[in-house]
Amino acid sequence: MKRVCFIGDSHTAAIKRGWWDAVENEFPDIAITFFSSHRRRYVDLAVQGDTLVPQSDELREVLMRSCKFEPVIAADYDLYILCGLDYSMNAVMTRLMKFRSEDQAPDDRAPVSIACYQRAMTGCLRESVSMQTAGKLRAITTRPITIVPAPRISEATELRLYPRLEKTGDAERIAGFFFAASDILSREFDVEMTRQPPQTLRDPLRTLAVYSKDAPREFNDTERPEGWKDYQHMNGDYGALVLRALFATPGF
To answer: Of 38, 65, 171, 245, whose CB neighbour count within 10 A is largest?
Structure first.
């Protein structure tokens, strides 16, 4: 039996749904333990000996809802998977929204050199909760760690930016910077980086709308304004494809 530790945020909901509804019976030799919490609370996850433990009651209580036992993350899992946790194309694009690399189409964004844009994107992703958590895991274990980025935004989004970026070819360029940054951080943190299953993509920056339909919620304590639309989270069909791709990796 291969024991897998899944650590994530609200995007874990799609993975759970995919696992319980479809994939679990396909892989009877895999056992998954889920630890999920809001991203902001992981600052309170600390190294204690050869374990990671919550240092606040809030984080402890939220993690217990998913793992169903005292939330101490041990060093003896066969594989650790970090899901979402601000490692996201959408998040990094938001942080860099006022800038473009010089090879992108001219617009109202400030142009910077290709090297500067690459360095900025890499820095943003290095500061993500995912990479911070990977660093903590590396303090307690040498076991494999895999990063699952948050899904690309749904094509149903009303933002006009994305069709324009696709038309100019900048969507592919931005995705290329993201992948290059991931390669750098993969070596830096000794982790494996996964890519979103290609069959779920509308274009390099957007997910097909069918996968954002009826997306489950991991936490029900976040207030949403009336009429709020969720273009960030995906459903169990998406989660199942992510898991199958993970478990099909050579050597898994």
So the answer is: 171
Long-range contact list for 127-131, CB < 8 A, 24+ apart? Answer: 128/85, 128/86, 128/87, 128/88, 128/91, 129/9, 129/39, 129/42, 129/85, 129/86, 129/87, 130/82, 130/84, 130/85, 130/86, 130/87, 131/87, 131/185, 131/189
d(CA 9, CA 12): 6
> Which is it for strands 153-154 and 206-207: parallel, antiparallel or unpaired?
parallel
Gyration radius (Cα) of the chain, Å: 18
pLDDT at 222: 64
Domain ranges of the chain: 2-89+129-157+191-247
Report the topology of domain 2-89+129-157+191-247.
Answer: Rossmann fold (3.40.50)
